[in-house]
Amino acid sequence: MFSVKKLSGCIGAELSGVDLTSDLDKSVLDEIEKQLLEHEVIFFRDQDISWQQHKEIAEHFGSLQSHPAYSSPDGYPEITILESTAEKPTKIESWHTDMTFLQSPPLCSILRSKICPPKGGDTMWSSMNGAYENLSPAMQSFLSDKTAEHDFSYGFKESIAEPGGRERLKDAIEKNPPVCHPVIRTHPQTGKKSIFVNPLFTTKINELSKIESDALLKFLYEHSITPEFTCRFSWTPNAIAIWDNRCTQHKPINDYFPAHRLLERITVDGDTPY
């Protein structure tokens, strides 16, 4: 149906030969979903979609979420504006899985680029399924019944610490108390297992002491971003990335200050990890 170019041995593929600005029938969207399940993150270039088309593509995967801490275009609360400027540079620098502070974190995210810096500003993704499969059987067994706490306030501690930050985010903090998820989750469509902790939102492994939890999380974070599990994408205007939030982490490369970067994201409702 369209061309597929793998970006690494483990994760990521760039798809071409499809126009996302046209009316997409179900067969095309079904094939896109199939490619997403196979490659975990997929990319398109030169897709000047409207806000409404962005929303319609996302709705193929499920109902849509809004983000408690970011702004949105008028009339499109589902679209999160991710902008970095010289006056207000981005604060997100760590590897993470989106919004794991929710009881049901997103199924996937659809991110499109509007303004790209002249150089830099790439994003990296890592396969948590690849990371899990490369753990020893003994470690896989040890982690199988462990749970971890994920906390909105921990992930946005820098924003909360800003003057007026706690007041600005008061509602989001109250509506998003810490939640617990399994350290190893099972993908509801593929049945594959993945590591499901990340340094932005995960605070502890519940069944361990603090010193044990800190040491094990440090190992899992380092293991999860082994280069062999990753891919890297260089943004161009009107590029689109769709990633499976149930089995990946990603990291923006903040090497473009003071240049302007603007992207728009929609996240799709997921299920409760198990």
Topology, pairings included?
Blueprint: E1 3-6, E2 13-16, H1 26-39, E3 41-44, H2 51-59, E4 79-84, E5 108-115, E6 123-127, H3 128-133, H4 137-143, E7 147-150, H5 152-155, H6 157-161, H7 165-168, H8 170-175, E8 179-182, E9 184-186, E10 193-195, E11 202-205, H9 210-224, E12 230-233, E13 240-244, E14 248-252, E15 261-268
Parallel strand pairs: 2-3
Antiparallel strand pairs: 1-2, 3-13, 4-15, 5-13, 5-15, 6-12, 6-14, 7-8, 7-11, 9-10
Helix content: 25-40%
Low-confidence stretches: none
Helix count, DSSP H or I runs of 4 or more residues: 9
Distance between the termini: 34 Å
Order of helices and strands: EEHEHEEEHHEHHHHEEEEHEEEE
Assembly status? single chain
**Main beta-sheet strand count, sense and barrel state:** 7 strands, mixed
CATH architecture designation: 4-Layer Sandwich
At CATH level 3, the topology is Double-stranded beta-helix
CATH superfamily: Clavaminate synthase-like
Number of domains: 1
The count of strands amounts to 15
**CATH class call:** Alpha Beta
Biggest sheet strand order reads: 1-2-3-13-5-15-4
Strand content: 25-35%
CA gyration radius, whole angstroms: 18 Å
Classification by helices and strands: alpha+beta
Please state the average pLDDT score.
94
